[in-house]
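Extended Data, panel c. Modelled sequence:
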Amino acid sequence: MKRRVKVILVFIVLALFSCRNSEKKPDASLLHGTDPASLSGAGGLSSRTISEISKNISSPVEIANLLQTMKVPFSSDYLATSIDAGKLSTSFDKALSLGILGADLGYIIMYEKTGAYVDLLASINKIAEALNVGEFFDFKTMERLSTDNSNLDSLLFLSLNSYDKADDYLSDNSQDQLASLMIIGVWIEGQYLATQVMRQYPDNMLRERIGEQKIILNDLIELATLHCERGNEYSELCGYLHEINDKYRDIRITYTKSDPVRKEKDGGLSVTQTETSIVEMTDRQLEDIIEISGIIRNKLIANN
């Protein structure tokens, strides 16, 4: 069964969430110099622009897969269990929490800890309904699939697809600020998971992944900046992202081209240029990132 889960994971990661193979270079933001035509209304973004940013974020299930490769044991201590869906009063809190819990959902599914799945799914259900995106989550099917470990590949796909549809709906219906919050919530929780594990289980590959987040963080900051004036919650979130970014400021990421990969496809020859990223990050810088990522994430879930 795990092999099937990992097969479908590979396709999802490569198609939607891969940061390592992105053509973006360090400090090259997707929004920097954006054509005004991509903006939907005053201060808004087209769903295409938001989708492009979302696709560059490392998926929590990708991170969870890496942790399994590292033989890191599952820990419920990493989950945002303090979030109470019934106490979320603003659309800001609901959208951000939906992203955070979505990251936890991917982590739980990848580790096949379906015992913790039902309660988390109930919270996601309540928040999704409150944001009018509940129709994109087939909760009955998702709950049924969670009871049989042989169906976890389908559960993983259905969960990710549901979030993707909810994100598209919000972006297409002039609620791009909520779609942006979902994306930021996913990233915040994925960053927290990766950094907390790194502190307890140091690993060079995980270290690289954490360092590479400097690239997507630039986009997230510009994405959040479009909404900083909406109110105190938004401006505070912008400040938090800048605090994390300050710890990334002096980290250097360089790319070296590797030998092209040649494959036969449809009777022809396909040539793909590959690159290898090199992250220059000191132990002190890494520790600062781990610390600030934990502080910010815990602040964001503290009032729930």
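Residues 176-200 form the longest helix (25 residues). This feature is highlighted in the accompanying rendering.
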